[in-house]
Amino acid sequence: MDDKTINKIEVRLSRLEKAVFGTKTGQTRETSIKGFAGLKGGLQLLISRAFFKTKRALAATKQELEKHDYHYSAAAIQTTLNRLSSRTGPLAAFKEGGKKVYVRRK
In sequence order, which ranges of 30-69 are alpha helices (DSSP H)? Predict the structure, then answer.
């Protein structure tokens, strides 16, 4: 086979691969603050900034979320914290002084 035929085959192959597998553009995730959307994203932002390095109650968490422009009700925050503190979640929860506190799981 000559070079002309090999080049034609390579062009056809690249077109087929592009049609079948698609391109990789647009599939990367943003790591900026824009990647932390919604209430769960706000709590993940706090986790990434080591807010839960020490024990934190619901009220302190709500205040910290409001500093970062996440304005949600206490009930919504409590529900999301409970979901993030499941067995496989990033947070651990326990009661201290009759109130539930949350800390980063190690």
Answer: 38-48, 58-67
Of the candidates 21, 17, 95, 29, the residue with the CA atom closest to the CA atom of residue 58: 95
Rounded-to-integer distance, Cα 92 and Cα 43, Å: 13
Sign of CA dihedral 63, 92, 96, 76: positive
CATH architecture for the domain at 33-104:
Orthogonal Bundle (1.10)
Whether the model pTM is above 0.70 = no
Calpha distance 55→65 (Å, rounded): 16
In this predicted structure, what is the pLDDT of residue 30? 41
- Examine the pLDDT at 26 and tell me if it is beyond 80: no
CB atoms < 10 A from the CB of 78, how many?
16
Domain boundaries, the chain: 33-104
- Name the pLDDT band for 12 (thresholds 50, 70, 90): very high
Contact between 64 and 47 under an 8 Å Cβ cutoff? The reply is no
